[in-house]
Every structure is written in structure tokens, then in C-alpha cells.
Amino acid sequence: MPHSSSATDRSRHRPQWWAELTLIVMVYAAYSGGRLLARGDVPAAVDHGLAILRIEKALFLNAEHPLNRLFTSTPALGIPADFAYASLHYVVTPAVLVWVFRRRPAGYRAARTWLMLATLLGLIGFTLLPTCPPRLLEAGHGFVDTMAQYSSYGWWGAEASAPRGLGGMTNQYAAMPSLHVGWALWCGVMLWRHARTPLVRWLGLAYPLVITVVVMGTANHYFLDAVAGAAVMAAGALMTRPALRAADRIRQAAAGLAVPSRTSPAPRPSPIVSSGCETSAGERFPGQRTRTSTSSADDTPATAR
Q1: Which of 206, 92, 154, 44 is nearest to 145 (CA)?
Q2: Is the peptide bond before 286 cis (omega within 30 degrees of 0)?
Q3: Pick from 79, 150, 153, 235: most CB atoms within 10 A?
Q4: If we measure between CA atoms, which residue out of 43, 51, 36 comes closest to residue 174?
Q5: What pLDDT score was predicted for residue 24?
Q6: 292: DSSP letter
Q7: What are 17-62's pLDDT values in tens digits?
Q8: Could you report the per-residue pLDDT of 265-298, keeping only the tens digit for each?
Q9: CB–CB of 133/126 below 8 Å?
Q10: Do 170 and 160 contact (CB within 8 A), yes or no?
Q11: What's the CA gap between 222 and 284, in Å, rounded?
Q12: How far from 263 is each of 34, 82, 270, 295, CA to CA, in Å?
């Protein structure tokens, strides 16, 4: 019986899968199209990238150089890192979303809203701050594009992590913030919060840390890009509850407009032709009297004239 009750609760709270799939596809299509439309001029993107690099060096946060040299000189690290960068955000993020949908339906709506809000905030960042990733800086800055170095091992080309020949379908200057790190952080929080086994929870903790190392070692992001990705996810988390309340109010208002207003029915016309008038004995036309207004004396027949 408890199992049946739990199943009933899950089915009650779980949204319709087809509606969720449609919504997610629409948001991701808008995100992908927005990335392409957000292509800024390359000189400005390069300037932004160099400015980030200078800030990191001033704060002793420049971990990209040693990690990139390690991945470049060690194929056993660089090749798996390239595979991870090119594929995991396409696989793990949807898998965790489906897992929450099936196993934690009561928390799914908030989790989905958080992910979408943070993604849209990231799109705003791409638009306002186009940034050249380290791998696209001039060689004199000391970075090697591991995706290009190990491209013969994977499906990607030298232009980006997209499949060969499709590099033009992505915005290579959408580096700030790093949504690779942001989405990985979201997955980690979901696994840590909802997983039942300690192993899965610890994997959720390790996943965003590993992705942060991967994006820097492959020279696809700066450390501050990763920090910005985490900040975007934090902002999305703060916006989730107000967004859900606003959506509920809109839904209730729409439901109220759809239900016709209930007003008191109009009085039906009296089926009596005389409309309550009576004709006394001996009268040819009905007098303007009703049953309620006649006295008991009037009930006596009048004398014929």
C-alpha cells in the first residue's frame, strides 16, 4: 500500500512529458539561435579575452596555462578531455533532467525552471560580452587548441567542438560565461540533493569540478568563465521561486478568463396572457387587479346591471 501511495503522488505531481519535451526543445532552439545571432565583432571578443587573462594573472588565478600544457603533452589526458568537452553536456544534462522528471516529480518543475533561467542568462552574457577563448588567441599567448590537436581521434574539427564541417553553426566566441560549467553544476546539485546512494552523490559533487578542469585544460575557457558560469546558475536559482509564482498567477488568471461568469438567470416571462389581471363576473374587460391585491369582499360576485 505505501508503494501504491508513492506512485500516486508521483503521477499527481509529474507534468505531461510531451508538454515538457516541447518546452525544452523550444527553449534550446531559442538558445542555439540566440548564440548564432549574438556573434560580436572578433576584435572586441579578442580584447575581452585578453582583459580576462590579464585580470587572472594579476590575481594569480591563471591555471589555464599549466593545465593546457599538461593536456597537450599527455594524450591520455587530452583526448578523454576533448571527448568530455564535446559530448558530456549533451548527454549528462538531459539524462539528469529525465531522471529528476521520473524519480522526483515534485521537484522537477523547479529544477527545470532553474536550468532554463540560467541558460537564458548565459545567452545574455554571450550577447553583451563576446569573448575569445584561449585556444583562439595568437600562438604567442601560449595556448594550444587540443580539439584541433586531437581532432583525428574524434568527430569534431578544428573550428569548434561541433562535428566536422559544422563549425559555422556555432558561436566560437560565446565563452563568457561557461555554461559547460554551469550545466555541470546544476547536474551536481540535482544528484547531490536527490540521489539515494552515497556513490551517486559524490559523483554529482565531482562532476562540475572535473568539467571545470576540462574546459581550462582544453583551452576552451578561462577560469573566470567558469566562475561566471557558477554565478549564472546562482542567479537562476534565486530567480526560480519568483518565476514559478508569476507563472502560477498567469495560469490562474488565464483559467479565470476561460471560465464563463456565473450570473443570476433572467426572470422568465409569465406564460399567462393577462399578466395577473382578473375579470370579475359581469365585466367585459379585465380590471387592473391581481390576486394578491384583491380583498375578500371582491371575491363576492357583483350584481348584474
Answers
A1: 154
A2: no
A3: 150
A4: 36
A5: 74
A6: T
A7: 677 777 777 777 777 676 666 566 789 999 999 999 999 999 999 8
A8: 555 555 555 555 555 555 555 555 544 444 444 4
A9: no
A10: yes
A11: 106
A12: 48, 67, 21, 38
Question: Residue 189 is which amino acid?
Answer: V
pLDDT value for 304: 42
Other residues' Cβ atoms within 10 Å of the Cβ of residue 151: 16
**Hey, what amino acid is at 131?**
T
Phi, psi of 287 (to 5 degrees): -80, 160
Q: Is residue 276 left, alpha or beta, with left meaning phi > 0 and alpha meaning psi from -120 to 50? A: left
* pTM of structure: 0.76
**Which set of grid coordinates corresponds to residue 263?**
450570473
Say which residues have a Cβ less than 8 Å from residue 287's Cβ, sequence separation at least 6: 277, 278, 279, 280
User: Is 156:96 a contact under the CB 8 Å cutoff?
Assistant: no
Question: Mind spelling out the 3-state secondary structure of 276-291?
Answer: CCECCCCCCCCECCCC
Strand partners, 9: none
CA distance 148 to 157: 6
Residue recorded with cell 591520455: 76
